[in-house]
Amino acid sequence: MDDKIIIIELGFVNAFLIKVKDGFILIDTGLPWQWENLEAKLDSLGCLPEKLKLVIITHGDFDHTGNCAKLQEKYKAEIAMHKADAFMAEKRVFLKRKARTLAAKIRILISRLRHRKISFNQFKPDIFLTDGQSLVEYGFNAKIVHLPGHTKGSIGILTDEGNFFSGDSLVNDKKPSIAIYVDNFQELESSIDKLKKLNIKNIYPGHGKPFPSEGLTYE
Q1: Torsion angle of alpha carbons 189, 190, 191, 194, nearest 10°?
Q2: Distances (CA, A) of 148 to 7, 52, 58, 186, 200
Q3: Is the distance from CB of 188 to CB of 149 less than 8 angstroms?
Q4: Tell me: the pLDDT tens digits for 52-65?
Q5: DSSP string for residues in 114-130
Q6: What is the tens place of the pLDDT at every residue in 5-38?
């Protein structure tokens, strides 16, 4: 695994801090009640207050966007995500999806009850990312891969070295798999076909431990 990638565990979700020239890029921000942990970690690594060059959001779910508003307000961080998920951030939307497994269906029922009590600040993205977009201008040799299926605006980030930040399009819940929660099955299938054609070596999922691409069967 790449020593330029720092994994930040924020409850059951991961954020990733990438060392780039003259600063850092943060991928996802974790759960809203993990703010103090995230801020302390970023501060200890020398990222705050002025070295955070960009925050990339893999999709609009609150466990990935939960601390965007605070990073914007306190540190003037620029938040980048795909436009198709912007409404989730701007209107604080909890997207309903279908589950691919029985265990996931049970989790959906539980999470819907919890969502009634969860609060996180709305925010407006500063930058909209598009499929194939290069991140070289931020000192990051990587590109955006649009992967609708889990959400309309789900993206992955693929580096020149073959490291792939998958958000929830690929996860490692007990074992590597494709998205467990699905907004659109046809779109997800197309996204998986797209992934199979990419030169991916290591996968850094939004949930679970990183794993080599050989450990994934795309089922």
Answers
A1: 120
A2: 24, 27, 11, 9, 18
A3: yes
A4: 999 999 999 999 99
A5: HHTT--------SEEE-
A6: 999 999 889 999 999 988 999 999 999 999 999 9
